[in-house]
Amino acid sequence: MSVEPGRGATPGSKEPRGWTEGDKALYSFFSLVSLGPSSWSIVEYVLALAGGAGGAWLEYNNSPQTESVTRVAASMIGVIIGAIVGGLAMMTRSFDTQLLKKLRRIGVKPTEFFGPFLSVIFLGVLSGICLLVISGIPVCMATGWRTFLGAVTGILTLATLAALLPAMGSLIAYVDFLEEAAQVPDIE
């Protein structure tokens, strides 16, 4: 983070002096991503742990299927991230002036609807990085490290898939919200 004279936070803001535009954007992104224990369902935990066990097993046994599993997982993660970005684009398109006025009146920020989707993107990016690393691991690397990386990759990959369930639930809640907002008279 670079500090430039004359730049800094406005009085009362949460950001430190010297934040760049990229720092501010990253802070905004992470303020909406929720990956804490209270935001996960038991299904997500079970699937993530199963993914970790599967990834660790594939790497520990130096399984010949590791390469094909990695290719399939990388393709799925790419499709998921693309679909989520497309879904976010459609959601933001529905924010017309009247809906934004209604949201402001009841004290809801429009970006609050994006949390589950951004969490999927974040998990997907981490998963993609791990899949890239795991695909380049040499066979001569210590089994313990390969097993650990396989477990982390499996956890992140299946956590990304499992996180789609709450994201779809959030989309349904958003559609219900739009229907309710349509029943409220427009604000002048």
Short description:
The protein is mainly alpha-helical. The chain is built from seven helices and no strands.
Structure description:
There is one protein chain. The chain is mainly α. The protein has one domain (41-183). Helix content is 69%, strand content 0%. It has seven helices and no strands. It has helices at 21-32, 42-60, 66-93, 97-106, 115-135, 143-162, 164-183.
Structural class: mainly alpha
Mean pLDDT level: 85
List the uncertain runs. Answer: 1-9
* Overall strand count: 0
How much of the residues is beta strand, in percent? under 5%
Provide the domain count: 1
Shape category:
elongated
Give helix % range: 55-70%
Describe the largest sheet.
none
Write the layout of secondary structure elements.
Blueprint: H1 21-32, H2 42-60, H3 66-93, H4 97-106, H5 115-135, H6 143-162, H7 164-183
Main attributes?
188 residues, disordered N terminus, elongated
